[in-house]
Specification:
Strand order of the largest sheet of chain B: 2-1-3-4-6-5-7
Number of strands of chain A: 15
Radius of gyration of chain A: 21 Å
CATH architecture of chain B: 3-Layer(aba) Sandwich
CATH class of the largest domain in chain A: Alpha Beta
Order of helices and strands of chain A: EHEHEHEHEHEHEHEEHEEHEEHEHEH
Helix content of chain B: 25-40%
CATH class of chain B: Alpha Beta
Structural class of chain A: alpha/beta
CATH superfamily of the largest domain in chain A: Thiamin diphosphate (ThDP)-binding fold, Pyr/PP domains
Structural class of chain B: alpha/beta
CATH architecture of the largest domain in chain A: 3-Layer(aba) Sandwich
Distance between the termini of chain B: 37 Å
Radius of gyration of chain B: 17 Å
Oligomer: heterodimer
Strand order of the largest sheet of chain A: 3-2-4-5-7-6-13
CATH superfamily of chain B: Thiamin diphosphate (ThDP)-binding fold, Pyr/PP domains
Strand content of chain B: 15-25%
Number of helices of chain B: 9
Chain lengths: ~375, ~260
Amino acid sequence: MKSSNNKKHLLTGNEAAAEAAILAGCRHYYGYPITPQNELINHMAIRMPQVGGTFLQAESEIAAVYMAYGGAAAGARVMTSSSGPGISLMQEGISYLAGSELPCVIVNVQRGGPGLGDISPSQADYFQAVKGGGHGDYHNIVLAPASVQEIADLVYDAFDLADRYRNPVMLLGDAQLGQMMEPVEFRKTPRTHQAVKRWALTGAEGRARNIVKSFYPVKGELEAFNIRLQRKYRAIEQEEVRYEEVNTQGAEIILVAYGTCARICKEAIRRASGTGLQIGLLRPITLWPFPKEPLRRLAKKARAFCVVEMSAGQMVEDVRLAVLDRCPVHFYGRMGGGVPSSREILKKVLNILAPEGTLELEIPEIPTELGKGLYFSTIP
Amino acid sequence: MQALYSAPETLIRTPSHYCPGCGHGIAHRLLAEIIDEWGIRGKTIGLAPVGCSVLAYNYLDIDMCEAAHGRPPAIATGIKRVHPDNVVFTYQGDGDLAAIGMAEIVHAASRAENITVIFINNAIYGMTNGQLAPTTLLNQRTTTTPEGRNPLTHGYPIRICELLATLEGASFLARTSLSSPKDVLQTKEALKKGFKTQIEKKGFSLIEVLAPCPVYWRMSPVESLKFIEEKMTQTFPLGVFKDWEKTVSAPGGQATKV
């Protein structure tokens, strides 16, 4: 496809991620086939040669992440992508990227787990993405898009953030977001903060040599390095928190959800409008750094939170840590490829408001034959 | 007074962490000499992975990248694809290259990745105090084969040059040794050929260097050199296994002398 701007393209989330990366100046992509992210690697295979970039299908996800590591060390904008099992294989490399402070964008199109699991949408890799996944005290910056348009927008930002903080950035999507098609408009001029990378390996012509490493064998050096890393993470927490609020003003119940689940929560809110139920949504866009402050603020007014995830309850832990005991935090989750419906979410909300079942509500049917299973609201 | 012989500029003068009689110091020096002689310090990027040589960046005054265990060929691929005109080499031990990194080295060779691999084969894991390596000789004692390597339980030593010689993507493959001054000079020539292969964009080159590890072989430095000549070369014959300038060696065939 041509990357002409100001034009809407109908693309899958996976293709949009690939195309946005190219527009953001990424010319080196390394990947390995795995469903449900194959549209991304396939798109890169077509487009990279057209723009004079490197596309390479690696022999494993391990090799893919280290090829990306090499490209990052050499000073280029690099991307790799995979899904659950492959992302697990990449964890060593992600820890090394963080330890060597290399900018790299990693896309995880989540699928059901554990183990081989299935290829349905899931959000069960939250802990892995947000809490580390690999060894050592490090953080990925984790971005959670909820639409194909937002995938494109956040991919630009992912490269900028990676460069600015010399840190791996993970775009955490899922099978639903990766595979569904939506209109997407690519920003005319992607914001680019392509820093001059004086630390990069280019050959030490006319300068002192550069070393890219994460090994600090002299006692005390590693602790000092870790302290510096943590200072960087605190700065990211100060500067880079992003979230969206929907209907939170005066809401009794605040839903907290990201990605696909946030879309379904918006649908639930839409279906509840006019019923007297006051439901709001806080949608974290950055999962790390996590939007703790807005949650604390909302905790002062809301009656309860309800976290909705396609997992056994992972992000809910961060919500509870943020609000502590200021406000009850409930959870509704589906696992193993199960996707919550807006009706299920509304039932959960009713159950929270009136556990004894005294509160009945006529939930209007979804006005489409798509209604039974997945249904995404058109609320942007 | 005129200096007839001195340390290469690229070799950093600093106390070495290598054990007495270790082969790494010689191999480092050869690399530094070639970089100086060819004036390529400003365009050379080296990779040193987990293993005894992880600190190679302490000794070579060039841009260097540390690598996770076994991954240098993948990282070197990423670097080389960004800087195709730089000279990119990996410096890997036998555990790194022939055990945990076997997939990466085979696929880098099969892609004809235009990098040079220096493969230090001392038949042992030195950094973790002397365990079985994929290249440990039959009957050789290590901390994890205290009764000697038994093929029934530990398998056979892996011959990397012979293995890679079956791949069309490998352009130059040679096995040399550090056991005598003559062998050291032949190693230098092989290293030069490896770099030449890369600079002329002829594809993948690998030089396997049989190196002594007297401490974990439980030998004196002199005995360890004798061990290379008398024992190691029986399992790992020296020679050129693939050379893009000559049509040597059918896959798995006889090696020709350097």
